[in-house]
Amino acid sequence: MSTYVVSDIHGEYDLFMGMLERIHFSEQDILYVLGDVLDRGPHPIKVLLEMMKYPNIIPMIGNHEVMGLTCLRFLMQEITDDNISKITDHPAIVQKLINWQMNGSVTTTDEFHKLDMETREQVLHYMEEFILYEELTVGDTEYILVHGGLGNFEPDRPLEDYDLDELVWTRPDYEMAYYDDIYVITGHTPTQAIEANDRPGYIYRKHNHIAIDCGACRYDGRLGAICLETGEEFYVEKEKIR
To answer: Which residues on adjacent β-strands are paired with residue 211?
Structure first.
């Protein structure tokens, strides 16, 4: 049995399937997906439907799922005069829809609307069950898995005290070790955007941080994963799966 972690797939179905093949993913293994399956890339819903087949894939919520869930629930409604008046009465939903669109929602909504109603409900229910974080011990090593970071970090602060925004929107200070004996694994921030990273586009591992968003949909088109038992890194790139 091996424990793998991947993040920020962003609709890159071919990269995701390539990664499952690359790590020889089996029913004895566990794969944590640290959020941001949705948006930007061509097939976010296709990725979700594939993930739903595996009880040993454990999804965590990212900021794109947070944006998507509210908007998709609203878009599920039948368009009626009453719903249109709700938009007028609650302009916040309009702003959420605009914000989500600006963050790459088109591919998600296009695929979602092609599903039948039953499958749409199954997808939304699946997303609503995404966990916020995970604490793991693998061998003798402790890990915290979270999409964004630990906003307003305090060493003695329990994880359950962090709110949603602090966990999915925050970008960590990768120059500071949060814990002496716990590794914090995050997505959300592409490793190309970490100033101190001397390997942009590859997994960043310093100061007890492990950042695994390798820019699958942006930058180099590379999906990265790590095995927690061995520390081995795995990569799938677009030009290598064509």
So the answer is: 186, 204
